[in-house]
Predict the structure.
Amino acid sequence: MAEASRRLSRGHLALAPSPQDSIEETRIRIHNLCFLGFGNVNRTLVCLLADCEAELRDRYGIAYRITGIASRRLGWRVGAKGLDSASLVALNSDSIAGGWQTGVSAPHTSNVRDWLAAARADVLFEATSLNVQTGQPALDHIRAALEHGAHAITANKGPIVHAYRELRDLAAARGKRFLFESTVMDGVPIFSLFDQLPAIRLQGFHGILNSTTNVILGEMEQGLALDDALKKAQALGIAETDATNDIDGWDAAVKTAALITVLMDVSIRLEDIARDGIRDLTPQALRNARRDGWPFKLVCRAKREGAGVKASVAPEKVLASSPMAKISGSSSYLYFETDIFPGLALTEENPGLSATAYGMLADFVRSVRNHAGDS
Amino acid sequence: MAEASRRLSRGHLALAPSPQDSIEETRIRIHNLCFLGFGNVNRTLVCLLADCEAELRDRYGIAYRITGIASRRLGWRVGAKGLDSASLVALNSDSIAGGWQTGVSAPHTSNVRDWLAAARADVLFEATSLNVQTGQPALDHIRAALEHGAHAITANKGPIVHAYRELRDLAAARGKRFLFESTVMDGVPIFSLFDQLPAIRLQGFHGILNSTTNVILGEMEQGLALDDALKKAQALGIAETDATNDIDGWDAAVKTAALITVLMDVSIRLEDIARDGIRDLTPQALRNARRDGWPFKLVCRAKREGAGVKASVAPEKVLASSPMAKISGSSSYLYFETDIFPGLALTEENPGLSATAYGMLADFVRSVRNHAGDS
């Protein structure tokens, strides 16, 4: 499965199972998958799914066909009989129109609800761009998917912060799952871990959750100015073209809010998180701090206080021998304080580019595995 | 819930739900629980269950009554109508006979199968002492429970190493669960974490998994001789009376074998793990190593080699700034290498005494939550 991201460029992919597999359909359920947003994450996901098709079928009794793809560039495409993975991944190239038409019938619809219906969606993979302030349009997409009767799986943090309880309750009412493992720590199963910890009480957490700033701080310690460090992070494929959300601490704050909302069951607004980015730090200050044994890190913190939670995102000096000081590059770290486990920490070192897409694949298995009975 | 172990001595416990709760029995399933071995782990578990009775009922629709307790001292006790938690925990005191008889009907049976049948067991909590070489008698207990039609939950590593595939397949054939989260890292959900990672390939792992030797090595670095360091670990409640299994690396080797067997799906015998304990280390050697920046740790390692796995348990010098060097006292650490996550590490700091029992409680919820349909 580690080959997946390389396969993106090779276009050497197994086909998604075709509807002709009806002999096995009695035992192996075929799920109609729809992909909203077709950038790196969903494209890698298509490859991962093709890569582990045999394992999903043999081990979990799960088969799939891709019946919908939508993005700003592609519009709302439907292939109710199943689109083939190889053609889809060819969309990676510039010849979108050409790739799209290779043997695939793909009519348009004009909005998300019609699209989900025409594609007979069982699962929506939502991976549009994050709007920190509103959670849109991802929020509307997820609501539409659940109301249509599909599981909703997102890599988008916005909907959790802005509408977690509504979406969770809507999913429960429809007997579907709303899952979002890829939103924090690139698909490391944080939310699933706590789902496995009944009756535990999370008192607080701290950690490093934004890779872009972590890479930038490391480069600035070596003497680069912020802008040059950012360019390096972009060249590494870690930072996006517009890194404002990262540098000003918004991305880390949204992740912090998501963890508080879901794992501590406390509603918190983004503006309630004390937020400070890395814009005011100079290479000199960073170098001195590292030299003195107390390097700067952009640290997320949350702690129960009364019925609420006090939370912050800010550059902090951390002891050089502490676990957080060792988190370099695109690695991340989360330390949880619970009643049963006083200190439980997860470290993710140098995740591959497919880790986020993998988190969505794992969510797919979770959603259909636990609902094997419905059809 | 953190109060549980303290409550052991106070005896201030809610009662287990009585059979009179039949109004709710249509929605809330009452499970008959049996406890085999009644030392610290199962006793603490009884307290934890009482502590979170309301949450189990309200959040998971799970209720229970305790219908069987067995140990070498108590024999095979049955209370088909439910034994009350307060009386059971009173068994902690020396007045076993007195405590047992407080209002509870508790006839004897003479073996595990009759006992499970008389107690109409839905779940067995197996926590007898570990026999490293055979996995007995835990193995027979678990086999009997699954054949009776109960979920089998154990804190015992032996049966995994000696009969994992047989027990896993037997559980699957009976539609029951065989769960053992407490066997490694005191109930931190290691096995459950990987159960949430479909289609991932574990290439290898390393870590520190034996608390007794970790405490002893720390004390010896301060100058204590092995025997005195062991006494200190025993006084802290970390080491058992007979710590041979720990000091000679057996406990760490069994845990390593369990992880390899379950998570890497490779059969390995204990004798295939290169095993070296801490008996030959002197306080002087340990002090020098720490002073030189390369302290000794008892490290477990596993790595795929061809179709097999190469594994070892041995004292190793680790770099003072590495994560393993920071693992002190009863803390533990596991670093996993996988295809998707090149490095994924879990650290458990200073687990409370209830962590192992908690792992069994979480297994209970997992087993009955995923099988809500059967009855």
About this structure: Residues 2-26, 93-105, 371-375 of chain A have pLDDT under 50 and may be disordered. Chain A touches chain B at residues 1-2, 52, 55-56, 59-60, 187-189, 192-193, 196-201, 321, 323, 326, 331, 339-352, 354-355, 358, 361-362, 365-366, 370, 373 (CB under 8 Å). DSSP finds 15 helices and 13 strands in chain A. The longest strand of chain A covers residues 62-71.
